[in-house]
Write a structure and sequence with these properties.
single chain, 418 residues, alpha+beta, CBS-domain, 19 strands, elongated, CBS domain
Length: 418
């Protein structure tokens, strides 16, 4: 342990890779687990929450940690792969301590915790030693002054607060992908999860909800006001919104559809008309659609949109007006790989793949899978009997339905051994 820094700030550990002694990465740090003591003694750090491959969260005891530095954590490699469960006496530093309101005993300064330092005591145990806090801003000052204070000089970290705040927890989650942020939210205590959900903006909350198990989705929506729930649904992709609405009580679903913007609600209503395990029920009604006179340059500009998933960006649909689903007749599709090889001034209509037999809305999961596999595609157009484009089924839509029921729960919980 001689190369380990004498003091490490917990929030800076989040996301660091965890390696075994052979140099193979076994996961990433997601939180620090401590046991608070009844007196003023420094809390003992008992371990790290580590997310291993497969998105399972396990507990890595500090006795298995041999080195911590600014870029990595090294363990003995002997880790129990059972899913981590927080015990009654334990507290998560990032999940539960950040944003706690505290007071400095010696000065009376009040502020909000934005980080906590841990270090090794003489006994070789790791303990929480310092608290980094930010004073509440006053007047026109943008940010309050920051302080790093001895743990023993802080009052307020042993008691729970009704409204803790989420500023620094949100900052800790800001760089995570939606699926990883969903894992964190799933593991939070109910009251802390509610605080975080209330603080997230609608777009970020929609991204995270799409990655949560159905039970968590329904629970979160039950706690939201109907007005906000409708706003979040508008930010979700229509197919995910339709799946969620289908899981809600009928009267709640009807009311939310009434509160949504008419255009957004209409897309969801159309998807609800199709069977859940059909191309119509899985499709996204907002693919990339262009008119026959569009150029390759215009097509490439459209697929560069960061709002598109990689699978949606892989296919450009050329249709007769109107250009919103259901469109006029679908003339053909252009693959992004072909577009990249053509002059920017070339018309998209001149580089179309017109030899495909498109899917119909009632196509089964097997039909969709066969189509994608046959033509080596990641997206497949869905048309009606008149050849009008209704939407596109992507490979990720298909996988959502082909994977066993509750796969999101298993992705997060991964009960059992590796």
């Amino acid at each position: 342990m001689s190369t380990t820094p004498t003091r490490v700030f917990a929030a800076r550990l989040a996301g660091l890779p965890v390696f075994d002694p052979q140099g193979d990465q076994v996961g990433k740090v997601r939180d620090v687990v401590v046991v608070l003591r009844a007196d003023v003694r420094q809390p003992r750090v008992v371990g790290l929450v580590v997310e291993v491959f497969g998105r399972r969260r396990i507990f890595a005891p500090m006795t298995r940690v041999t080195n911590i530095d600014s870029g990595q954590v090294i363990t003995t490699g002997l880790l129990n792969m059972r899913r981590f469960e927080l015990r009654a006496a334990e507290t998560l530093v990032i999940g539960q301590m950040l944003d706690r309101k505290v007071k400095v005993k010696s000065t009376g300064v009040e502020g909000m915790v934005f980080d906590v330092a841990m270090e090794q005591a003489r006994t070789r145990d790791w303990v929480l030693s310092r608290v980094a806090l930010q004073e509440t801003s006053k007047g026109f000052r943008r940010r309050g002054q920051t302080h790093v204070v001895e743990w023993s000089d802080i009052d307020g970290l042993h008691r729970r607060e009704a409204n803790q705040g989420t500023t620094h927890l949100i900052a800790a989650l800001s760089d995570l992908k939606p699926a990883d942020a969903a894992n964190v939210i799933h593991e939070l205590p109910p009251e802390r999860r509610a605080e975080l959900v209330a603080a997230l903006d609608d777009e970020r909350l929609a991204e995270v909800i799409e990655e949560l198990p159905e039970e968590d989705q329904v629970e979160i929506f039950a706690a939201l006001s109907q007005e906000r729930a409708a706003d979040v649904l508008e930010e979700m992709s229509p197919d995910d919104a339709a799946d969620l609405i289908a899981d809600l009580p009928p009267e709640t679903a009807a009311r939310l559809l009434e509160l949504m913007e008419p255009d957004e609600a209409e897309d969801v209503r159309r998807l609800l008309e199709y069977g859940e395990e059909t191309a119509g029920g899985m499709m996204t009604p907002e693919p990339v659609i262009l008119s026959p006179d569009a150029t390759v340059a215009e097509a490439l500009a459209r697929v560069r949109s960061e709002e598109l998933t990689p699978s949606l960006a892989a296919l450009v649909h050329v249709c007769r007006p109107p250009l919103e689903t259901p469109t006029g007749k679908l003339i053909g599709v252009a693959h992004i790989q072909r577009l990249l090889r053509e002059p920017p001034s070339e018309l998209v209509a001149g580089v179309l793949d017109t030899g495909l037999t498109y899917l119909h809305a009632d196509a089964s999961l097997e039909d969709v899978a066969t189509f994608l596999a046959t033509y080596n595609l990641v997206a497949a157009p869905v048309v009606d009997d008149e050849g009008r484009l209704l939407g596109t089924v992507t490979v990720d839509d298909l996988l959502d339905h082909l994977l066993p029921d509750g796969w999101r729960d298993r992705r997060i919980e991964q009960a059992g051994s590796a």
